[in-house]
Design a protein that fits this description.
Length: about 260
């Protein structure tokens, strides 16, 4: 775990690292999340679209760790919700605010933002964030998400998948990564946090080439796991997501910190 001052230095200039990881050649001045081709959002439409459609009209949806605003822009395509973003990196938030001035985007530690907004959100999405958290932060964030949701609210967390053969690559791609999750441990995380109806989501491809890639990926991983005597694993996609719901009735804070 980095000292706070080192972590601050890393996130201060995080946008340049983000561009390298996604293979973009844009500069900070040129990058615009709104110019990403609409077809590139197809996987999110198929994977997360039904969850967003189910949010009641006017409900606020938080993008926890919104980065440069790509997923936040996608959320904004659903006119019946009110997207909100928060990210700790000033360089990332500057890009998001420039592109999406109509949205509320906070430059703040996500934990403190959640803690000061109890029972506000109908849904919280967090993509590629929880792998950055230390052990203590992990459960503090789960409790804070639980508290920030309205009763019956949805949380969706996406992370790299340790069951994928590139799990170690994802773990060490970024100096701030603390871990990767397996499908089992990601479910365990939300159950400990007091969420109910917890289940996994896998990215749903759009084009036929994507379906071929998914089939080959699963066949390869299935063979390796069978050879290594782990026959129960079934989810091998490079990214996995878990969803859970805050109970309609019950405690106002989850039990993760107990």
């Amino acid at each position: 775990m980095f000292q706070p001052e080192i972590r601050t230095r890393i996130y201060q200039h995080y946008f340049a690292h983000f561009l390298r990881t996604v293979g973009a050649t844009d500069s900070a001045e040129d990058f615009d999340p709104r110019k990403i081709p609409r077809r590139d959002f197809g996987i999110w439409d198929r994977t997360y679209g039904p969850l967003v459609h189910a949010v009641a009209s006017g409900g606020e949806v938080l993008d926890l760790g919104c980065g440069a605003g790509i997923f936040l822009h996608w959320l904004g395509m659903y006119s019946h919700i009110r997207p909100v973003g928060v990210d700790i990196s000033p360089s990332m938030v500057a890009i998001a605010r420039r592109a999406l001035p109509q949205l509320e985007i906070a430059c703040e530690d996500g934990l403190s933002f959640l803690q000061r907004n109890p029972s506000r959100f109908a849904a919280v999405f967090s993509l590629q964030v929880f792998e950055h958290l230390s052990d203590d932060e992990l459960f503090a964030y789960v409790d804070a998400v639980f508290s920030a949701l309205r009763p019956g609210g949805l949380v969706c967390i996406e992370t790299p998948n340790a069951a994928n053969l590139l799990g170690s690559y994802a773990r060490y791609l970024d100096l701030t990564h603390q871990r990767v999750f397996t499908p089992t441990s990601l479910i365990q995380l939300l159950e400990i946090g007091g969420f109910e109806r917890v289940s996994l989501l896998q990215p749903r491809p759009v084009r036929w080439l994507g379906f071929v890639r998914v089939f080959l990926e699963k066949a390869l991983h299935r063979a390796v796991f069978l050879i290594c005597n782990y026959p129960r694993e079934r989810v091998f996609s490079a990214k996995i997501a878990v969803i859970g719901y805050k109970p309609e009735h019950g405690p106002t804070a989850g039990p993760a910190a107990l």
